[in-house]
Amino acid sequence: MTKPAPTGAPTGSARHGAAFWLVAVVYLVALAFSTIPAPLYPLYQAADGFSSFTVTVVFAVYAVGVIVALLLAGHISDWVGRRRVLLPALALEIAAGVLFLAWPSLTGLLLARFLTGLGVGMLTATATAYLLELHTAHRPRAAGTRFEVVSAAANLGGLGAGTLVAGFLAQFVTAPLRTPYVVFLVLLALSVVAVLSVPETVTAPAVRPKYRPQRVRLSGASLVAAAGAFTAFAVFGLFTSLAPGFVAAGLHHPSRLLAGFTAFLVFGAGAAAQSAAGLLPAAKRFSIGLAAQASGLVVLAAGMVATSLWIFLAGGAIAGAGAGILFKSAVGRIAAAAPAAERGAALAGLFLVGYAGLTVPVLGLGVATLFVASTTAMLWFSVLLLAGLGAIAAASRR
């Protein structure tokens, strides 16, 4: 169960305020680590002869790890505590970082990506719930705006920061397949220290609930919101799997920094749009996110047909902004509606649907590249995603 917000205890309140920012930084670092390989995939392809399909399999293994962790452990922090889930999640990411360094072949890459996914799956819902509780403990009478902005920035901003930092290091330092992991192993070790220093917000219930895998219970408006998260993650999956390679091969811009920037632009636009979405009426955010993502996909397709980097990037930024608003709307609705004792489980269910969107469409895209050119496969991807957005819009109106 969640502890009540402290009252009349300014020292405790100040400690929770500092903890809020520490957990936000840990969240950002952990999510950034998960996207390090995105701008490096073309280098792995050149070194080991990977096909585009193999890249999507490597990416999908990560998403499978996330889904497995969400099913098995994404909800247990509601009764064992947030810190007791965050620490093993960070340990899994550290183990993955060591594997990336020690075993750079395809087998090692697959295992390291799976471990990364397990860590992220344990961490995302837990850290989101932790931030909300620390925010409430620090500012018990304040609105949830700070929590919404910071959690969104840590999530999408972290995913984008990982690609940008990895792309920069790959472009300008030696050992591009090693240095980014060394840097983030240091940051992850510091993150463990940070989590050890912050207060817990959950006390163990008198009778621990019987363990069961996470159940996804979505209906009505929650189901529509989760479907929006599915499409949002599909866009993010595209830009952390095949898009960097497409920029290098299809658009003839092989810069590793540009590959990292391409993914960063999409996530950065999503994080910025989430922050700005607070200025929009809550009832309009979902429909605006749908419209923005659909518009971005149209521009993205135009950039692919015209083989124009700048049109492609503009489409990615617009689609990323729409995806960010959709995801913010889904998290805000479900976090606010869930009882405190079930908040972690509710958010784990949302992330489970989202990461399914990260896996299934990208795997389908990879299979398509076995039979058609990457440009054609990505155009099909855009058309199918547009159809899905249309169906969600119709369901939302009903």
UniProtKB/TrEMBL annotation:
The chain crosses the membrane at residues 20-44, 50-73, 85-104, 110-132, 153-175, 181-202, 223-251, 257-279, 286-303, 309-327, 347-371, 377-395. It is a multi-pass membrane protein. InterPro entries: MFS, MFS_dom, MFS_trans_sf, MFS_Transporters. The keyword Mitochondrion does not apply. Keywords: Cell membrane, Membrane, Transmembrane, Transmembrane helix, Transport. It holds the Pfam family MFS_1. Its main location: membrane. It is found in: Cell membrane. SUPFAM superfamilies: MFS general substrate transporter. Residues 18-398 form the Major facilitator superfamily (MFS) profile domain. This is MFS transporter. The lineage of its organism: Bacteria, Bacillati, Actinomycetota, Actinomycetes, Micromonosporales.
